[in-house]
Amino acid sequence: MSMFTAVEMAPRDPILGLNEQFAADSNPNKVNLGVGVYYDDNGKLPLLRCVQAVEQDMIKAPKARGYLPIDGIAAYDEAVKGLVFGAGSEPVKSGRIATIQGIGGTGGLKVGADFLKKLDPNAKVLISNPSWENHRALFTSAGFVVEEYPYYDAAKRGIDFDGMLSALNAAPAGTIVVLHACCHNPTGYDIRADQWDQVVAVVKEKKLVAFLDMAYQGFGYGIQEDGAAIGKFVAAGLNFFVSTSFSKSFSLYGERVGALSVLCESKEEAGRVLSQLKIAIRTNYSNPPTHGGAVVATVLGTPELRTLWEKELGEMRDRIKLMRHKLVDGLAAAGVKRDMRFITDQIGMFSYSGLSKDQMVRLRQEFGVYGTDTGRMCVAALNSKNIDYVCQSIAKVI
Ligand code: PMP
Q1: Where is the Aminotransferase class I/classII large domain (predicted)?
Q2: Mean local confidence (pLDDT), 189-209
Q3: Catalytic-residue membership of 248
Q4: Ligand 1 proximity of 104 Cβ (cutoff 6 Å)
Q5: 116-154 as b/e: b if 16+ CB within 10 A
Q6: Nearest 5°: phi and psi at 105?
Q7: Distance CA 171, CA 376 (A)
Q8: Ligand 1 in contact with 348 (CB < 6 A)?
Q9: Distance 111 CA to ligand 1 centre (A)
């Protein structure tokens, strides 16, 4: 008898489980489209040149590593504000944004969730159906009841916008609505600009709390374009939350670089909010790690490196789009009769392929092509070498 005798085995993380299965697969043609990671055309995780340049300088002038402030590197937080809200924007100039360096986008979300729980313990959380699989667990573990608003419409291969809007309309005041700022994970479908206007209007009218999750800024149409929804919430005079992740945009997955920004009414209010965010951090992990934050702050704050980063980000974005087109063409060439052009309507890393669970299982078992059971495939893991094989494999299961 041990104190852990009654501890149950938790279910495996579905995506990490898929990775383990992939690793154990002996099929020489196997392709992993399960995880949300960008690979280059050689199937390699890129190390961006802007990141390398900073790291080389760091090696030339090595520095001791003291503790960072609780809210992270000041220059990093400033750079995040500029990226999310626009460098010369009114919220930045007036100093009414409280930003903290987070442990990845996940950390930003969790610090925000912990703060919100203290602010309004009875609020409900609404996430999209479907959503990034960690949203539900994260807000649940922060103590919230999590429900869904309709989002994906499988029959029409798009968004059930009417359903989404009426769910938001029906939500009680104070409900926290988690919105994907761009590049919706897992579906790849984003709402249009005019639909964002309607969402903003409902959030304002019904006094909901918007929490925008921006994990892919720059992966859709561009840095500013992908941040456009933020500008709409600002223009409506709302106070809201934005989590940022640099995992993908800097290809710094393991460094855990992200942030949380809270737009407040005034600079004075932002000071008070920041003091509470710091308590959430202090009692969880005290302060963030130095390396990733220092790299990102230096790249964003050095004009030549910033230009290089934007170029490299643009290359990743363009390559994903190219793969979407190749996928559509390749599927048609492989004999798929179904109209698959919706794949190029989707944006960001993922495609909801419309394949059934059975088809996804067959893809895995017979062809070593790994996507999730929901039909989600990571387009950013396709390349010029594996695309034909993937298209032919899909053609055989459709
Ligand atoms: N939100 C969404 C929608 C995501 O897809 C991800 C990661 N893929 C995250 C948050 C978390 O990002 P990070 O890995 O930086 O914690």
Answers
A1: 29-394
A2: 98
A3: yes
A4: yes
A5: bbeeeeebbbbbbbbbbbbbbebbeebebebebbbbbbe
A6: -65, -35
A7: 29
A8: no
A9: 14
What pTM was estimated for this model as a whole?
A: 0.97
Catalytic: 213? yes
> Given 77, 114, 160, 213, which residue is catalytic?
213
Q: Which residue has the tokens 């363009």?
A: 318
Give the pLDDT confidence of 282-336 residue by residue, as tens digits.
Answer: 999 999 999 999 999 999 999 999 999 999 999 999 999 999 999 999 999 999 9
Residue 10, classified by CB atoms within 10 Å of its CB into exposed (0-12), middle (13-18) or buried (19+), is exposed
Residue written as tokens 């949300």? Answer: 36
pLDDT in tens, 125-158: 999 999 999 999 999 999 999 999 999 999 989 9
List the alpha helices (DSSP H) in 67-184.
Answer: 74-85, 90-94, 104-119, 133-141, 161-170
Query: Under a CB-based contact definition with an 8 Å cutoff, are residues 188 and 352 in contact?
Result: yes
Return d(Cα 108, Cα 285) in angstroms, integer: 12
CB of residue 257 inside a 6 A radius of ligand 1: no
Residue 251, ligand 1, Cβ within 6 A: no
What is the residue with the minimal CA distance to atom 2 of ligand 1? 215
